[in-house]
Amino acid sequence: MKFRNAAIFLFLTLIFVSGCKKKTGETNNDCLSKLDFTKITYTDNSGNTLSDNPADWTNDSTWCDQKYGLFSTSNLDLTGSDTSKLFTILFPNPLRDMGILVVARPKLCPFECVIVNRSFQVLDTFSIPNITGNVLRNIPFSDSLKYKHGEYYRIYYAAHCTKKLFFFKGHGDFKVQ
């Protein structure tokens, strides 16, 4: 009788344990679940900072795999690139139909941007092959199928060089009004 009860208990335990599976391949891991797009750096139509979010438009010290996965580095031409400081900002913020991304650096480097929504879906990507000096990039946000009024979005950016593929990486949040 004891053997039969033990066998039934073991059988039921095995069925229960086999039904419990660890979820794999989820994109909503700890890194992505903590994202807050609502803390933006407010800028006016001339690019002046009105209020600052210190986490935006800086060099992020670490990224999770999903953030690195936004960028393809396989075809980068890194010839002559340099690791000098980089400056980025988007204005105006919040914006209506158009934003201007400012990327400034004294020396040459390839620069990429990926725009995502709060669900971490990629909405747009673009690159500037070699930045030298100040670059102003107009970005249209008038596509109402992609960009909803009243919503927050994030631009991830990465500058590359020969020694480290992501020597300057960061993000900036913005709102479409």
Explain how this protein is built.
The protein has 177 residues and is α+β, with helices and mostly antiparallel strands. The protein has one domain (31-175): Immunoglobulin-like (Sandwich), CATH 2.60.40. Helix content is 15%, strand content 36%. It has helices at 2-19, 30-33, 65-68, and strands at 42-43, 49-51, 87-91, 98-116, 122-140, 152-159, 168-175. A hairpin with a 5-residue loop joins strand 1 (42-43) and strand 2 (49-51). The longest helix is centred in the N-terminal third of the chain and has 18 residues, at 2-19. Residues 6-28 have low confidence and may be disordered.
Task: Please outline the helices and strands.
Layout: H1 2-19, H2 30-33, E1 42-43, E2 49-51, H3 65-68, E3 87-91, E4 98-116, E5 122-140, E6 152-159, E7 168-175
Antiparallel strand pairs: 1-2, 3-4, 4-5, 4-6, 6-7
Gyration radius, rounded? 23 Å
The number of distinct β-strands equals 7
Beta-strand content: 35-45%
**Mean pLDDT value:** 79
CATH topology: Immunoglobulin-like
pLDDT below 50 for ≥5 consecutive residues: which ranges?
6-28
